[in-house]
Amino acid sequence: MSSSYYTLANYNQNGTIAISLASFEDIATMAANSLENVTVKKKNFILNKPVSGWIRKDGRVQLSLEVTVAKGAKVEETCRHIQDEVASAVQMMCETVPVRITVKVAAVK
Fold first, then answer.
1. Strand locations in 1-109, DSSP E?
2. Which residue in 14, 55, 87, 99 has the most C-beta neighbors within 10 A?
């Protein structure tokens, strides 16, 4: 299967179950945008992707988010909340997918 899909452990022997990296990116975007004081930076050009995902050599899915944090919010605490919320959303929707989440604050508004 393509490296743009993460293959889940499937124990029922009926076939393969895989989740696209675009789906992980959508889950991460929704999770981050659900938090107070956070918005995912809008896509300006095709080269500037605010949420990107890839599968590392060790089999873990890594997500990178560029976010805008509200003025006056505690940046470090907010970034930890983003990581927790994204990890929780991915775990809930995709079961036990190992995830590494990098948060970059692109702007404070």
1. 5-7, 18-20, 38-40, 51-55, 61-69, 99-108
2. 99
